[in-house]
């Protein structure tokens, strides 16, 4: 039996159909978990640090969804580190002041070592960010940002970076390739914590970088091999299994998030409800600062207090409990990662906890 590839541009079809073994009699539907540190000589892999069929299948699917060449990593922070390694010594990186704390920590660590200069900006100030691109080697940003949920003008920022020859990398973890495709908008790189929505079940640590240029992907793959930050076969298998259901999971989670933002808007116990209009993350600013937000979190019953996000279960967290969070984030800001439970139950739990 020979393969007859079906060509589709629909994300739902790509997520389900790609990254599978050849259709031969008695062949498995899914790429198995290849527990191998060493491969027979003469091929492209030879050693487990250079490749594995389990993570190659995941890369095939995510690369197709993002429209580029995917390189997977052991974690999201490893993927971020590999991108920052592309910046020349003494170069400048522009990043949002309200970025994922792991990204800021990476930038600060490299800056302290004299490796690069980090310029933190308000990503919603398009003119100021565009002007800063004139002296930058890399424009890195999230849209929406974590946890402020600010949305950047991606086409305008990419155009400004292009005019100055500045590389652009966008952390697409919150939006996923189903809601936003950075490479199609002109970015050079899309970065993911696959731990979150892509894997989607709170049981995997993994990351990925998708490059528009295959030669850049090769550089990033080389950094992965040198650092040893390779994904494990089992995690790759689980992440791909999660990726298969991303379209239906995200559709439900986003619908829940929109409805929760609507129901919570104007609640007297809240100073603000932040929702960018897409995705499944909502941020609430609870009255009473840290004390008020912590009391609210202590009273929820269905929602789980946890720092990660993007799973099938709904979680929440006061972000300023982490000393590394930006001081411009309100003390009472609680980030909600909206899951797949019934929206009435999620709303009832929040409203009861708010009082």
UniProtKB/TrEMBL annotation:
<dbReference type="GO" id="GO:0018826">
    <property type="term" value="F:methionine gamma-lyase activity"/>
</dbReference>
<dbReference type="GO" id="GO:0003962">
    <property type="term" value="F:cystathionine gamma-synthase activity"/>
</dbReference>
<feature type="region of interest" description="Disordered">
    <location>
        <begin position="1"/>
        <end position="30"/>
    </location>
</feature>
<dbReference type="GO" id="GO:0005737">
    <property type="term" value="C:cytoplasm"/>
</dbReference>
<dbReference type="GO" id="GO:0030170">
    <property type="term" value="F:pyridoxal phosphate binding"/>
</dbReference>
<dbReference type="GO" id="GO:0019343">
    <property type="term" value="P:cysteine biosynthetic process via cystathionine"/>
</dbReference>
<dbReference type="Pfam" id="PF01053">
    <property type="entry name" value="Cys_Met_Meta_PP"/>
</dbReference>
<dbReference type="InterPro" id="IPR015421">
    <property type="entry name" value="PyrdxlP-dep_Trfase_major"/>
</dbReference>
<dbReference type="InterPro" id="IPR054542">
    <property type="entry name" value="Cys_met_metab_PP"/>
</dbReference>
<comment type="similarity">
    <text>Belongs to the trans-sulfuration enzymes family.</text>
</comment>
<keyword id="KW-0663">Pyridoxal phosphate</keyword>
<dbReference type="InterPro" id="IPR015424">
    <property type="entry name" value="PyrdxlP-dep_Trfase"/>
</dbReference>
<protein>
    <recommendedName>
        <fullName>homocysteine desulfhydrase</fullName>
        <ecNumber>4.4.1.2</ecNumber>
    </recommendedName>
</protein>
<dbReference type="InterPro" id="IPR015422">
    <property type="entry name" value="PyrdxlP-dep_Trfase_small"/>
</dbReference>
<feature type="modified residue" description="N6-(pyridoxal phosphate)lysine">
    <location>
        <position position="196"/>
    </location>
</feature>
<dbReference type="InterPro" id="IPR000277">
    <property type="entry name" value="Cys/Met-Metab_PyrdxlP-dep_enz"/>
</dbReference>
<dbReference type="GO" id="GO:0004123">
    <property type="term" value="F:cystathionine gamma-lyase activity"/>
</dbReference>
<dbReference type="GO" id="GO:0019346">
    <property type="term" value="P:transsulfuration"/>
</dbReference>
<feature type="compositionally biased region" description="Basic and acidic residues">
    <location>
        <begin position="1"/>
        <end position="10"/>
    </location>
</feature>
<dbReference type="GO" id="GO:0047982">
    <property type="term" value="F:homocysteine desulfhydrase activity"/>
</dbReference>
């Amino acid at each position: 039996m020979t393969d007859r590839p079906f060509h589709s541009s629909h994300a739902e079809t790509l997520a389900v159909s790609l990254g599978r073994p050849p259709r031969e009699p008695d062949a498995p539907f899914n790429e198995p978990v290849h527990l191998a540190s060493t491969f027979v000589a003469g091929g492209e892999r030879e050693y487990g640090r250079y490749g594995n069929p389990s993570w190659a299948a995941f890369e095939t699917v995510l690369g197709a969804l993002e429209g580029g060449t995917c390189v997977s990593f052991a974690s999201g922070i490893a993927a971020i580190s590999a991108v920052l390694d592309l910046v020349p010594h003494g170069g400048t990186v522009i990043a949002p002041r309200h970025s994922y704390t792991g990204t800021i920590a990476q930038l600060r660590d490299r800056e302290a070592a004299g490796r690069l200069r980090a310029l933190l900006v308000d990503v919603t100030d398009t003119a100021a960010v565009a002007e800063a691109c004139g002296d930058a080697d890399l424009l890195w940003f999230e849209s929406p940002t974590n946890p402020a949920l600010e949305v950047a003008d991606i086409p305008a920022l990419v155009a400004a970076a292009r005019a100055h020859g500045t590389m652009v990398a966008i952390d697409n973890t919150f939006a996923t390739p189903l809601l936003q495709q950075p490479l199609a908008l002109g970015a050079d790189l899309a970065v993911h914590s696959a731990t979150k929505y892509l894997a989607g079940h709170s049981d995997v640590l993994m990351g990925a970088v998708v490059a528009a240029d295959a030669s850049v992907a090769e550089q990033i793959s080389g950094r992965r091999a040198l650092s040893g930050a390779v994904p494990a076969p089992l995690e790759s298998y689980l992440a791909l299994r999660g990726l298969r259901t991303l379209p239906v999971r995200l559709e439900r989670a986003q619908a829940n998030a929109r409805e929760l933002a609507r129901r919570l808007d104007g609640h007297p116990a809240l100073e603000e409800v932040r929702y960018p209009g897409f995705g499944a993350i909502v941020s609430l600013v609870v009255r009473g600062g840290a004390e008020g937000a912590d009391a609210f979190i202590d009273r929820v019953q269905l929602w789980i207090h946890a720092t990660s996000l993007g799973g099938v279960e709904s979680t929440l967290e006061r972000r300023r409990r982490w000393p590394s969070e930006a001081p411009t984030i309100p003390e009472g800001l609680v980030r909600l990662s909206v899951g797949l439970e019934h929206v009435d139950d999620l709303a009832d739990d929040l409203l009861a906890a708010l009082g």
